[in-house]
Amino acid sequence: MAPISAAALNAVPLSKASMASSMLSIMQQIGGSIGIVVFTTMLTNRTHYHLSVVGAAMKSGSPAFSDAIVQRAQEVHSLGLTHAESFLVAKTLVMKTVSSSAVVMAFQDAFLVGGVIAAACLIPAWFLPGPTKPHVKPIVVQEEVLEETTNLD
After folding, report:
1. Are 90 and 69 in contact (CB under 8 A)?
2. Position 38 confidence tier, pLDDT thresholds 50, 70, 90
3. Could you point out which of 39, 67, 70, 144 has its C-alpha 20 to 30 Å from the C-alpha of 23?
4. Distance in angstroms (rounded) separating the CA atoms of residues 96 and 89
5. pLDDT for residue 132
6. Is residue 150's pLDDT more than 60?
C-alpha cells in the first residue's frame, strides 16, 4: 500500500499535496468499508449455501448421519446421561460439526476470492510509473569565490 500511496502523492504538484493526501486517505477508508461489506455479505451467503449442501447430504434417514448420531450418543451416554438426553446431545454435536464445516468452507471461498482480487490488482500495479528523478537546479560556483578561498591558505 505504501508504494501506491507514494506514487500517487509524487504525481501531484507540491502545492496540492495536502489535498491529494486527504483524498487518498478518504479513498482508502471508503475502499476498506466497501471491502468489509462485500466480504461479509459473501461470507454469509456462502455459509448458507454450504449449510444447505451439507445439510442436504445429512438427511435424517441417511446411514452416515444415523451412524454419527449413534456413535456420539454412545460416547455421551458413557458420561452418565440417559438415552434420550444422549440422543439429543449427540444430534446437537453432529449438527454443530456440520455447521462448523460449512463456516470453514465459506471462509475458504472468501479467501479464494480475496486472493483472486489481490492477484488482479497486481496487473495495474506493474504499470505504475517508476521513481522520478528530482528536479535539482545545478549550483554554479563563481570563480572569484574559489580564488579567494584558495588564496587564504
Report:
1. yes
2. very high
3. 39
4. 10
5. 63
6. no
Q: What is the pLDDT of residues 70-103, one digit of tens each?
A: 899 999 889 888 989 999 999 899 889 989 999 9
DSSP one-letter string for the chain:
-HHHHHHHHHTS-GGGHHHHHHHHHHHHHHHHHHHHHHHHHHHHHHHHHHHHHHHHHS-TT-HHHHHHHHHHHHHHHTTT--HHHHHHHHHHHHHHHHHHHHHHHHHHHHHHHHHHHHHHHHHHHTTS--PPPP--PPPPPPHHHHHHHHHT-
**Residue 151 cell numbers, joined:** 588564496
**Residue 144 one-letter amino acid:** E
Grid cell 510509473 is found at: 129
Please say whether the beta carbons of 26 and 11 come within 8 A. Answer: no
Q: Let me know: does 86 contact 73? Beta carbons within 8 Å.
A: yes
**Cell numbers at residue 8, please?**
500517487
